[in-house]
Design goal:
The chain contains nine helices and no strands. By secondary structure, the protein is mainly alpha-helical.
């Protein structure tokens, strides 16, 4: 008698990682089903608009858009932009990269804090959000005083990539280790290339400043996590 083989899951990842990826996809689905007026409102309040961020209070931006009315309205897009994507290809690629990169990171964090879930998942989410915020601030700084709007989770995902690369270096190594510097240099060069060929190849500009900023933010955050590994007893 043969034992039936069990089919592997479609998304072979821990449920917090798969769940977060599905949240990105579900958010895009919900937004795409909204009436056009509400879609525009989500984009207006959730996307990163450098000209609105840098405009003087009470004065229109260089493109005629009003500045953010309050500090909370200006800070909301730093995170909300991660849940808004340009199209289905954009969100599917980001969700796929999220699953591939977040899985080994969550496994590491579960080893650091065994038996303390949801602590490891919360730490992974904090890593992503920190990288996304740094990415957003870097994009805004690089787009002073105006520039096109930016959306997507790629800033946070760039932070996850930096974290995965740092895992290879071990807890006793610094950010200036040779292998990490080489990998980081290649990442920056690749983004510079895509900044030039992106509009022609993909039909859209690449927010390379956000990618680089998110990468640096993720590296700093993960460096602190690895110090925790080094300090852990045993």
């Amino acid at each position: 008698m043969t034992t039936p083989t069990r089919q592997p899951p479609i998304i072979n990842a821990p449920w917090p990682v798969a769940g977060f990826a599905l949240v990105l996809v579900a958010a895009h689905l919900v937004i795409s089903l909204l009436p056009t007026r509400l879609q525009n409102a989500v984009f207006y309040f959730g996307a990163l608009f450098p000209e609105r961020f840098w405009a003087s209070s009470g004065a229109p931006s260089v493109t005629g858009l009003p500045p953010y009315a309050t500090a909370s309205e200006a800070l909301l897009p730093l995170v909300a932009s991660a849940f808004i994507h340009a199209d289905w290809m954009h969100v599917i690629l980001n969700a796929a990269f999220l699953v591939a990169l977040a899985k080994p990171l969550l496994e590491l964090m579960r080893r650091i804090w065994p038996g303390r879930e949801p602590g490891a998942s919360i730490l992974l989410l904090a890593l992503f959000l920190f990288a996304q915020i740094v990415a957003s601030l870097t994009f805004l700084s690089g787009s002073y005083p105006d520039g096109g709007p930016a959306v997507g989770a790629s800033g946070g995902i760039s932070g996850l990539l930096a974290s995965v690369l740092l895992i290879r270096e071990g807890p006793g190594r610094w950010l200036l280790s040779r292998r990490f510097l080489v990998a980081s240099s290649l990442f920056v060069i690749a983004n510079a290339v895509f900044a030039f060929i992106g509009p022609g190849l993909l039909g859209a500009s690449i927010a390379w400043q956000a990618h680089v900023g998110g990468y640096l933010g993720g590296a700093v955050f993960m460096r602190a996590v690895l110090w925790r590994v080094r300090a852990a007893p045993g």
